[in-house]
Amino acid sequence: MRLRTRRRSSARSSGPFRSPWTHVAQAAAALAAGMGVGRFVYTPILPLMQTQAGLSSAAGANLATANYIGYLVGALMGIAMPALVRSPAVLRGSLIVLTGSLVAMPATHSTTVWIVLRLLAGLTSALIFVVAVSSVLSHLRDHPAHLPGWAFGGVGAGIALSGLLVLVLRSVADWRAAWWASAGLAAVFAAVSWNLRPEGTPASDAGSTTGPARPSPRPHSWFTALFAAYTLEGIGYIVAGTFLVAAIEQSSPGWAGSGAWVLVGLAAVPSSALWAWLGRRWSRPDLLCAALVIQAVGIALPALIGGVTAALISALLFGATFLGVSTIALAAGTHLQFPRSVALLTAGYSVGQILGPLVVTPLLHHGYHQALILAALVVLAAAGAAAVLRIGFPHHMAVVRSTVPGRRSAPAETTPVRTDRP
Predict the structure, then answer these.
(1) CA distances for 288 relative to 174, 224, 313, 332, angstroms
(2) The dihedral of CA 89, 91, 92, 94: what is its sign?
(3) I want to staple 289 with a disulfide (CB 3.0 to 4.6 A). Which of 55, 148, 319, 386 is the partner?
(4) Residue 396, pLDDT score
(5) Calpha distance 308→310 (Å, rounded)
(6) Non-local CB neighbours of 366 within 8 Å, separated by 6+ positions
(7) What span, in angstroms and rounded, lies between the C-alpha atoms of 293 and 317?
(8) What was the pLDDT predicted at 386?
(9) How many CA atoms lie within 13 A of 50 on its CB side?
(10) Residue spans of the chain under pLDDT 70
């Protein structure tokens, strides 16, 4: 009864009541535009640009790196200027600029211009991600954990639909049409998310308190292991996220790569909600370690076995884990109450994504299989760091219930964090 009252109070204070699923749909559409299309459509289009536009493997890696540098800059902007996170104008402007960058890709054959456009796409996709995720965590904080999980599934939906679009167009059109069609898909998602309500009030990673803090275990050692695991994950996962389609097409029919990428997106749609549900039964360190091991197997399969069956299994395992790893890691950082944990983990993850393509570039002269094997080993190293996290992990920590300025809340009380919720 108290929970129901709190939800109604939150709805009244943040505007006219709407179904939480409306908010989920709008946030999912924003993430589909910014991440699923704007950021990841490059993966299935890359082989087309290599065969039809003369893009070399090294230049392809440079375009990927430019996008990840832009993403890091955008994420840091969201951290340094919190007002951006709460601005509808920033969300809408980023959606427009992102779509424009996709439209402009086929207008040139200049690698330098492509690098600038992908840098711009990375920056705006990061701002969209920050605004959308902050909105979900703010407005749906009193709702079941699977609702934000379905919002994160928008990334998978964008990957699946844009991958399907490229799969259809590759047999009837060229790489230019793929970019233009992707821009049209991004515009549709942007229209759906246009009225998404950003986060209404500032909030810190640890939340503000209305009472004295209680003693809690020192989180530094566990956070160090978590930070190492998440940064290594950024390196390993992005290699697969960038080159998986091209690697599969080296040893399988042309449709297999794009088809596998569609499967990655489909598997990613329910993955965050599924890992949130599993978090009610197992601890976060155990889940993080398991997800990373599963992901490493998925990344290595196309290189070790090859063939269509291995490619599809790889896509399924990769799609089912890469969003789940982020969900678990960020939740674990918040649970440890380490200052600015989300910002620090996101920064480490972004740096890892920049390093990934650079690390494997020397290996691309021999194809993509060696790069995938190295990526799988890095993800296994991340799983090793996650295993260290399991040692003495504080599954119960005393926290002070947070309050938001401008909202009426119950008196502050100290309660243990439940381990059955992510």
Answers:
(1) 40, 15, 20, 9
(2) positive
(3) 386
(4) 64
(5) 6
(6) none
(7) 10
(8) 92
(9) 20
(10) 1-18, 139-146, 199-219, 251-254, 339-343, 392, 394-422
**Are 246 and 166 contacting, i.e. CB atoms less than 8 angstroms apart?**
no
Radius of gyration of the chain (CA): 21
State how far the Cα of 67 lies from the Cα of 101, in Å rounded to an integer.
12
* H or E element at residue 400: strand 398-400
**How many Cβ atoms are within 10 Å of 325's Cβ, its own excluded?**
27
Residue 236 token pair: 């390993």
**Other residues' Cβ atoms within 10 Å of the Cβ of residue 275:** 29
Q: What pLDDT is attached to residue 150? A: 84
H helix or E strand, kind and range, residue 82: none
> Cα–Cα distance between 365 and 34 in angstroms, integer?
31
244-263 in b/e form (b: 16+ CB < 10 A) is: bbbbbbebbeeebbbbbbbb
pLDDT of residue 146: 66
Which of 45, 38, 62 has the alpha carbon at shortest distance from 106?
A: 45
Q: Which of 171, 172, 367, 167 is nearest to 257 (CA)?
A: 167
**What pLDDT was estimated at residue 47?**
87
Q: How many CB atoms lie within 10 A of CB 395?
A: 13
Closest CA to 77 of 114, 130, 115: 130
Strands (E), 173-244: none
- Return the ∠ at Cα 409 (arms to 89 and 202), rounded to 5°: 25
Single-letter amino acid, residue 80: A
**How is 19-62 classified by DSSP, letter by letter?**
-HHHHHHHHHHHHIIIIIITTTTHHHHHHHHHHHS---HHHHHH
